[in-house]
Design brief:
This protein has 154 residues and is of the alpha+beta class. The chain has one domain (33-152): endopeptidase domain like (from Nostoc punctiforme) (endopeptidase fold (from Nostoc punctiforme)). 32% of the residues lie in helices and 25% in strands. It has a six-stranded antiparallel β-sheet. The protein has a two-stranded parallel sheet with strand order 1-2. A hairpin with a 4-residue loop joins strand 5 (112-118) and strand 6 (123-128). The longest helix has 18 residues, at 2-19.
């Protein structure tokens, strides 16, 4: 009977491993990007995953969306404005087809500007009010609804 109870407990534990969502950061494919500023921007932004959202914060422990952009680019040696509105006008406007890792993605949500950093053709990293620094996809209907455009700073 003890043997059966031990196996049942093991089976329950293994089952829970597959049922309970993982807290590990989302794995995403990054384009083959040359060493340099684009690679630095993407790696710095991804390293902030899991840090909490706090309005008006520009890192390194807490971020709002524009703060993540400001901190990331500054760490990569590139100066950018401090607000999402100003960041959304900075650099050059580009089409979705021209997006490369490190480019900015712009959203307008209920009259608020929101901004993130592209890490591949569809995924971006941003400071989410509900989840902190996280990765999301432009393929999501939610993000498609609020998408405004893209900017290249490099």
């Amino acid at each position: 009977m003890k043997r059966f109870a031990g196996r049942a407990a093991l089976l329950v534990c293994v089952s829970l491993m597959f049922l309970v969502p993982s807290c590990a950061p989302k794995k995403v494919k990054i384009y083959d990007i040359p060493e340099g500023a684009r690679s630095d921007v993407v790696q710095i932004a991804l390293a902030q995953q899991g840090k909490q959202y706090r309005s008006g914060n520009k890192g390194p422990d807490y971020f709002d969306c524009s703060g993540l952009i400001y901190f990331t680019y500054r760490q990569a040696g590139i100066s950018v404005p401090k607000t999402a509105e100003a960041q959304g006008r900075f650099g050059a406007e580009i089409s979705r087809g021209a997006v490369q890792p490190g480019d900015l993605v712009l959203f307008k949500i209920k009259n608020d500007d929101h901004i993130g950093i592209m890490i591949n053709g569809s995924d971006f990293v941003h400071a989410s009010k509900s989840r902190g620094v996280a990765i999301d996809s432009l393929e999501s209907k939610y993000w498609q609804r609020y998408l405004v455009g893209f900017r290249s700073l490099m």
